[in-house]
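Table S2 (text version). Query chain:
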Amino acid sequence: MIRYIFKRILTIIPVVLAVAIVVFTVMYFSPGNPAEIILGTGASQESIEQLEKQLGIDQPYLVQLGRFMFSTFIKFDLGNSYANNLSISAELANRFPKTLMLALFAIILELIIGIPLGMIAAIKRNKLADQLCMLFALIGVSAPAFWLGIELILLFSSRLHWLPSSGVVSWKGWILPIILVSLRGIAQMARQSRSSMLEVINSDYVVTGRAKGLKESEIMFKYALSNALIPLVQTAGNSFASSLGGAVVIESLFSIPGIGQYMVQAVRVRDYAVIRGTVVVLSIAFCLIMMIVDIVFAFIDPRIMAQYSGRSAKAKYRAKRRREARANG
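Corresponding structure-token output:
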């Protein structure tokens, strides 16, 4: 298992490095001078050139890229913001827990609601319950999060006065953001669980369980669902990773001081240092989540781990038989 995890970590490194190079290149060739943005339009050319030298942005592309890569991956320092000169690493450390909390509660809601909806749709295939579940999934995938968030604010905050329209001072402030972040994931989870359940629901072991007189609930949860877990785990992992980086609109809409809001503010003032650091951190988080998903795959299906370890399940079986033969002979 350690070898499998080590190989997965090795595959993360080139991905993160490539993301860092791409985002730096895009920010480098983007229009706008950070020094002019910081000093304002009325600054003199001499002041702009002095600040450029202070920030190090007057150097050639390769020099700036090398300094950025060394500072980020060797010194583990993302630098300071161009706008307020605050440490980017410290800001991300303060904001990341809020984004993580939003994503965690969203994925829990997706699992609690999405999987049962998909199972109901699969069991009641082509019936009214199936059509209603898939209609809900279609709306969840298609509805724009920004528009839906405004509608929910108008309903629950402006008219009913049940929930706050912004901020997360109390637990009530998390309700609407979590619902909005999880809505698309619930829809995707429902569609995926329906598809996976339909693949196994007519399998031989399910038919045999029914022939033995087992309860339908026991057959669905103990046999059918356990064999449909791999695509569901992958969907959950993708949804959780997307929630970390995709809550930009929701955090801005509800004034949640998370990574998404931090990035939006940086884009508005063209704070390229913040954008670079945020993208790198999110890419690392995304890769780590995908690694955890792959490890869960390995526990669910040992053939996956055997494939990465360089030995097939058949080879391991033969080696085991040889050891048993030597022990008996």
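Notes on Table S2: The longest helix spans residues 88-123. The radius of gyration is 25 Å.
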